[in-house]
Amino acid sequence: MSRQTQTLLGFDRLRKEYFGVPAVTDLVLDVPVGQVVGVIGENGAGKSTLMNMIGGVVPPTSGQMFWKGQAYAPRSPGDATMLGIAFIHQELNLFTNLTIAENIFVDGFPTRFGLIDRAEMRGKTQALLEQLSLDASPDTMVDHLAPGERQLVEIAKALHRDAELIIFDEPTTSLTPRETARLFETIERLKADHKTILYISHILSDVERLSDRIVVLRDGELVAEGPTDEFDIPRMITAMIGRELSGLFPKRSAKPRGETLLSVQGLSQPGVLDNVSFDIRAGEIFGLFGLMGSGRSEMARILFGLDPYAAGTVTLNGATLAGSVRDRIRAGMAFVTEDRRAEGLMMDASIMDNLSLVSIERFGRTPVALLDEKAIAAKTEALKSDIQIKAGSIAVQPVRSLSGGNQQKVVIGKWLINEPALFILDEPTRGVDVGAKYEIYALADRLAAAGNGILFISSELEEIAGVCDRVMVMNRGEVMGTFDAPPFVDTEILALAFGEQAKTREVSA
Amino acid sequence: MTDTPKDRLTGFIARHGTIVMFLLIVLVFGTQAPNFLGPDNLANIIKQASFIGIAAIGMVFVLLTAGIDLSVGSVMYLGPLIAGFAMRDFGVGVAGGLLVAVAAGAIMGAINAFLIVYLRIIPFIVTLSTLFFFRGFGAWLTSSRQFDFPDEIRAFGLSSVMGIPTPILFFVAIAAIAHVVLSRTTFGRQVYAIGNDPAAAEKAGISTWRVKAGVYIICSTLAALSGFILIAQIGRLDTGFGEGREFDVIAAAVLGGASLFGGIGTAFSAVIGATMIQAVKTGLVFTGVSLYLQPMLQGLIIFVAVFLDSFRASQLEMLQRRFIRPL
Description:
The structure holds 2 protein chains of 2 kinds. Chain A is α/β, with parallel strands linked by helices. Chain A folds into 3 domains: about 1-85 and about 165-170 and about 190-245, Rossmann fold; about 95-160, no CATH class; about 260-505, P-loop containing nucleotide triphosphate hydrolases (Rossmann fold), CATH 3.40.50. Chain A is built from 18 helices and 24 strands. Chain B is mainly alpha-helical. Chain B has a single domain, classed as CATH 1.10.3470. In chain B, about 75% of the residues lie in helices and about 0% in strands. Chain B contains 14 helices and 4 strands. Chain B has helices at about 5-15, 15-30, 40-65, 70-90, 95-120, 125-140, 150-155, 165-185, 185-195, 200-205, 210-235, 245-255, 265-285, 295-320, and strands spanning about 145-150, 160, 165, 235. In chain B, the strands form 2 sheets. In chain B, strands 1-4 form a two-stranded antiparallel ribbon. In chain B, strands 2-3 form a two-stranded antiparallel ribbon. The model of chain B has no long low-confidence stretch (mean pLDDT about 90). The interface of A and B includes residues 93, 115, 272 and 293 of A.
């Protein structure tokens, strides 16, 4: 077969530069029709930039793209959609104030006598939903759907538009295990229908399971490409980071000290938490594991003073905390939230503005507290090199343009200026690739070694077991048990998390 | 989630807060002044509400896209004024005048739309400028003098069909058409989509500039029409006509449940909001409240209604919050 019929999407010396820094460098690649192609790469490897070029969001600096052998130069996202390219992003592009059916037909409603033909729209939507085994009425408001269901609506939209190429960008981030399994079935089905799929994910085992071919990007360049059989996970990792990774987790550089830093006693809130007690020592990384709905993030919010609690005490450095978030920040708490985009960062503000946000009061000079811009620049610049944020000019570049791992470093960095004693890290490595994960673990270790306490909340068992000194497990707002020393056994942690053996187990609580 | 009767009551009030509030206000005035609830007075309230109401229906379109139009008060003035010239100097008649007013409104809306969509200036600034420009243009045309319409216009303004005053007929018809447009046409549903997430609307391939242009044209057209219908009842146009009315119009739309942040609201929001404001005004007169206290009380009632609305939103959120363990 000729190149035209085999290749759906091709790239020829495709290049994109931001602020003079190349994000994608002279990429040459063909995406074959009807295959699932896994795209993997570290933080800032150029995956997002490549997808943005395919989607018509940003134009390439040089080079060309081909769609079915024809030159392809989209000027807007609409161009890409019209040609048959659909994106399923982490953040979905659905209108929550419209129904499922309206979301699917929003760019072209079926009409009769100028009015929307609801019966036809409903019928066609019903067929699409059945095809995807989504059991919901076409008239359901999207607002009322769970994340996994919303994603299926997004896929239904792609099918309705006869998309030939469907690009999944970290699609499992906000899904439960069951929703993930269902997504994978759907992807298999799409493949059977000769759809071509680009699957981008940091979860390498998923990529290995789903893909026919694997494409590895590093620093904007294509470093490896081939059938999935030729890749095992260690080879993927080696290709992604360009060296052998000695381990997924850094060695702990210091032991926790004796003194108690944070003490939580009998924390309760009806419907959320019941009698939660634990201590975190100085220099300790204290793991908190729980499944979705276990109350782990809810507890973090209560600890930080964001949500109310009915009973219990929180003591930090011997002082009992009672007040607002501000008081808790002053007392030495830092909170890296689960959702960095919505809660942790001002996405369109510069890196410098984000880094100086928490500690801005420190930079007030003169009686009226005008900000000392030079001091801010010096401090944030030092921070940037200290925690190795990969970026151009921190005064100009918006946080939105950073990759996930570098964004997370900015979130952690903004607290560092304040020199807190206790860090609450809620899912700090979500949506972050292997290499950047390692850096975040190393940063946590460094903070702990300096005598800080860290509450490390995660739903990933391996990292909880890999980086923590102790692990507490929660289920339905209760502490199920605490494991006091490594090695932590996956099955034991999971058993507690599922609430199977409750408090009768032989672990200290 | 446990569903106690109290929860259900809270939920009902939270969901239908505006209507509940509306009925309460009417009832309170009704007990204070029994005439207030008479059919003549209720019809009168709706008739008087039609002026702000018709313009507020147009405003709902704009608010749904998370935009704002401050120029409606000036459009209410300039639209009928141009129609008046056409009637007096060219003898186009009342029907002709109505068409001219509507066309003039559409053109003013197109000017707003051009500046907002094509030059990408924010709606607040654009419509603040045209607020002065449109009124200034009218003042220049009339040398700031009162404009007298031909007598025939009052015959139209005070007419009724089968006992129903013409302004009410226009109000009801426009509300019905607007409702169908918003709920049953591609344009209408895309208005909601853009208000919910403009970036996603762009990505979904919606021609957002067209939809946005459309809402500003509709808003000005309805503002000019509402001005014409009120002028038809008075017969003359003062230079200050419509001044400051943009705030009544926006207040009516928001009071009825339209969100300033876009994506939420219906044609009926405007109807309910405008009728509610008028009911309060009339009710204060009926109950003999001092003329000097009335504006303050109006302000207070609007504040309370909107405050209850935000309270309602937080209550709804509470009701929908998921608990992870039994209470």
